[in-house]
Amino acid sequence: MSLSIAPEPMRLVVVGAGGRMGKTLVKAIAEADGVTLHAALERVGSPLIGQDAGSVADIKPNGVAISADPLAAVLDFTIPDVSCAMAAFAAQARIVHVIGTTGFEEKHIHRLEAAARHATIVKSGNMSLGVNLIAGLVRKAAAALGDDWDIEVLEMHHRMKIDAPSGTALLLGQAAAKGREVSLKDKKVAVRDGVTGAREPGTIGFATLRGGSVIGEHSVIFAGQGERIEISHRAEDRGLFGRGAIRAALWARGRKPGLYGMDDVLGLTGL
Q1: Catalytic residue list contains 158
Q2: Can 157 be counted among the known catalytic residues?
Q3: pLDDT digits (tens, 9 = 90+) for 232-241
Q4: By CB distance 3.0 to 4.6 Å, which of 23, 78, 141, 247 could disulfide with 82?
Q5: Rounded CA gap, 186 and 245, in Å?
Q6: What is the model's pTM?
């Protein structure tokens, strides 16, 4: 008779623990099975250093003091330069790095790819199951409908959002481009102003709205002659991103180094 021994809880580090998503991640870890908060990080000089991470996140104290020293597997919703620095640390430490940061440029992606030779990195413009599911549907629809259907990605976020289009909008636009077997870089139209002329066939447009406290709303519109298809997602609870990040960390545990996406985590690569 063999006895199965449950694995030790996965020790997670939250980067930017005093920020909006950092607090959400601390709460999500407290509510999830199979994981524990090992460390909570803030920038050097932050007034939050030394404070209890649970108290900062408005839950009961958890005995983890916020510090500036990375120690273990990392959940990271910060800014591109910080994420790249944490990826380099993850490569040195041979640990899991889950990245929900958006706004990456090509130079950042090269740094992440280099780090992924030694670190197991899961990166996504959105960690939710729903968004990644509709990305698969968008890819399928774009492939099936053809170039004579116009594609527009419409998104709205809260007034404090710092990048546009959002990482989720770009994820959905990339899915559409992949379905059409074209480069999003070549087909993306993010700004329209003045006398623009007729819409260029085959382009993928983006419209960005900002205001209030909207967590995130996204629609991909396929506009044909006499008919229109819309595939939409609305985030109603910021905690869904934290839960997705934890799921990604648990999935990545023990896997070989590489740069993965949430479609890998959720088994949606074939959709």
Answers
A1: no
A2: yes
A3: 999 998 889 9
A4: 78
A5: 31
A6: 0.76
